[in-house]
Structure formats: C-alpha cells, structure tokens
Design goal:
By secondary structure, this protein is mainly alpha-helical. It contains 8 helices and 2 strands. It has a two-stranded antiparallel ribbon. The protein starts with 8 loop residues before the first helix and ends with a helix.
Length: about 200
C-alpha cells in the first residue's frame, strides 16, 4: 500500500478556495435573484462540489467539503439563504449538504483511477457525482419531511419535486466535465512547478 502524500500549502490553499466557492454557490441567488424555481433558490453547490473532486482529488476534495460543513455548523452563514448551524442540517435540504463530502470523494477516486484522465473519465466522474448528490439528498429530504418536519410527502413526490433542480444540475455537470480537463492539467502543472521550485530552493 503506497504512502499517502502530505498536503502542501498550495493544496490547502485550493481547498480553502473551494470552501469559499461553496459558500458563494449556496447563496448565488442573493446576487442573481431570478435563479429561482417556485421561490426556491437554485444552488451552484453541486457544480462546485463535483469540481472539487475533479480538480483536488478524493482526499483533498472531500476534506474541503468537510471544512465547508464545519464552517457552517460553527455559525458562519455559508449554507443556502445565508443559514448556518445544525438547524440547516436538520432541514429538508440537509442531506444535500452532507452529500457533498462523499460526492467529492467518489468523483476524485474515479479521476485518480486512471493515470491519464480524458474527457470520458471526467464525464463519468461528474455524473457519478450528481447521482450521489441526488441519491443522498432526495432520500434525506423525504425522511426529514415525513419523520421530523411533519410534512406528508410521498417518495415519488419527493423525486418529482427535485426534477427542475436535477435538470439544472445535469446541464452544469456536463459543462463542468467539459471544461474540467483543461483546468485539471493546468492545475497539475502549477502544483508540479511549485514542488520543483521548493526542491530547488
């Protein structure tokens, strides 16, 4: 079993960037109000969570999502509609917040499974990510509504309610998968050059 590489400063910087992007993605409708369906804000979080896995890898991508989660639980208004704390996690959308951690990990693992990832690998990883988000998030929403929020909703209705959101996320997921390879390889060059500079000094 290979020894796990330690995180470098540039790795942690990029992870921090994705924590910030998740906070922005959660509240993008505060700046672009028309991105709503039935007064429910559309989130860019799935896009950034998947991109974190694609660009940072499984460990660092998942870590950035864990940090995002704990920043919100600690009281920073980084969840949707500038919410925070455990109340947001126990709400109907709490499962989506939790889903970003395994999503980034799974997406990263798929990219790491090949030495030279191509567009098809980015597409596979991205759609595995969106599947994970909706599998965890929608099931959690159904359980939350029916068991502790006291709102009756059938399992089928829960999935139907997510249709518009899923359509948006599928489009953005495909877009992210297409642009990710160029960013991925550029990022690898930057991190490689950073390592070489450190060794040379």
């Amino acid at each position: 079993m290979g020894k796990k590489r330690k995180f470098r400063t540039i790795d942690l910087t990029m992870a921090s960037m994705f924590v910030a992007l998740m906070a922005i993605g959660a509240n993008i409708t505060s700046w672009i109000p028309f991105l709503q369906v039935a007064n429910i804000p559309l989130s860019m979080q799935p896009f950034f969570a998947i991109l974190a896995g694609l660009l940072l890898g499984s460990r660092l991508g998942a870590l950035s999502m864990v940090v995002y989660l704990f920043v919100g639980l600690a009281g920073a208004p980084v969840f949707a509609q500038f919410s925070s704390g455990f109340d947001a996690l126990l709400g109907s959308s709490g499962g989506f917040i939790l889903s970003y951690i395994p999503t980034a990990f799974i997406v990263g693992k798929i990219i790491e499974s090949t030495s030279k990832p191509e567009l098809k690998h980015f597409l596979l990883a991205s759609f595995a990510g969106i599947f994970t988000i909706y599998l965890v998030g929608t099931n959690y929403m159904y359980i939350a509504l029916n068991y502790w929020l006291n709102i009756d909703m059938s399992y089928a209705a829960a999935w139907i309610a997510m249709t518009w959101f899923a359509l948006k996320d599928v489009i953005f997921t495909a877009f992210g998968a297409v642009i990710a390879p160029r960013i991925f390889h550029a990022t690898k060059r930057v991190t490689r050059n950073s390592s070489n500079t450190k060794i040379a000094s």
